[in-house]
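Could you please review the protein record set out just below?
***
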Amino acid sequence: MAINLFGFEISKKVSPQNSVEAISPIPKPTDESSATVAVGGGYYGQYVDLSNTDTVSDHELIRKYREAAMQPECDAAVSDIVDGAIASSDESSPVDLSMNDLDLPDSVKKKIINEFNRVLKLYKFNRNAADYFRNWYVDGKAYFNVIIDPNNPQKGIIELRPVESTHINKVKEVKQETDKKTGLEYEKVVDEYYVYSPDLGNNGVDKLNGIKFANDAIIQVNSGIMDPDKTRTVGHLHKSMKLVNQLRYMEDSLVVYRVSRAPERRIFYIDVGNLPKGKAEEYVQQVVSRYRNKLVYDANTGNISDDRRHMSMLEDFYLPRREGGRGTEITTLGGGENLGQIEDVQFFQRKLYRALNVPVARLEQDTAFSVGRASEVSREEVKFQKFIDRLRKKFSFMLMDALRIQLILKGVITEKDWGDIEESINISFLEDNYFAELKEFEILRERLEMSQMLEDIVGKYISDKYVRTVILKQSEEDIMRLDAEIEEEGSGDDGEFDDEDENI
């Protein structure tokens, strides 16, 4: 364990003979944005910000995402996504650890499960899981500070503290290298760390001022979505930003149109006879001031008063009419006739839901919930569930990273061991989606009906193992486990009957 900057490094120092690094001018693929600093000669060289290319900064984008999430339609869609991803239950945790494919002793598995439960307690996951997921989904990234005891790192993680996304930035130090064979220059990453400052989001000029944290002192989970230039990470709400703004403009214009066109207005044709132009205009103004009624309601006091000093866009029209006309006349100008048409607003609402991968049917709050067969479940709901599963896998990185650090600190496994078993550890989320459950039951019912139809030809044309593996989709492990359970249950039943017979 070596202290590095303001944090710690988990990995051990590797001897030079065992350290093998592939040299390639092609940088490693990444799904995170960072500030890049060119270094050379022991000092910082030119500062190159690859995350901000003639557009707003990452921190400004996060603020825009949060503003967009306040739109009622967007907030409702995000709430549906959060509710679909994080299920709450008083009896069980929202997540569970699965190690079915892990080839380790049971004692080691038990230690891993215990440390995973410890990580959940550090996160206070049962209580804050929905908030963590919503903040990560809206911001497009989430950060947690890993706090340990420097004097006794074997105690493991002491605290996992959330970090405001707009107050932290990842920095990469790179230096220019030249390929000896081709002569091409490429960038080699020398060091990676995080810079934290409460003013980082407000002062985007110098992103290197602040407290430096080692790479392993910060747990980061991002959306994994990159902009077209592959220079920075954007949030899940990025593609809906334009639609949110368009929807706001449409709603605002709708209100203006309603206010200006809804009321009926009158047109006064005033007979001015043969009066000259100046006298005619003066006479018209006298009529207007005499008959215009400007009643104003004060919501604070509840009083109604006559206020003639203010002009309104809903004023009546007063037009002079020369001698020879039909005299003074009052007609009515009707209001707007298509005030109830909001198809354009509904169009942008549906488009917003599609951009967020939320079923459009959920926009209609009056739609009744139907309990039926799986065939009745819409394709949009199935796609939505797959989308939720992808979000869960990405979000689970925050748990996996914390588990990795905890296991290495406690000495349960090494860094190399984690690389070998990482793919065999899965985090399963608690399911409360009725559509997913209904689909599974429907599939099982169809499989059981098919197996019953094949009973007459089992042993003649097909084998029993074929039915169990191909039709019922049972693995070899499932077959052995189920056979053992059936045998155990059968022997138990026989024992009970024997006892009853003896008592009789």
Summary: Confidence is low (pLDDT under 50) at residues 1-22, 40-54, 495-504. The chain has 13 helices and 19 strands. The longest strand covers residues 185-196.
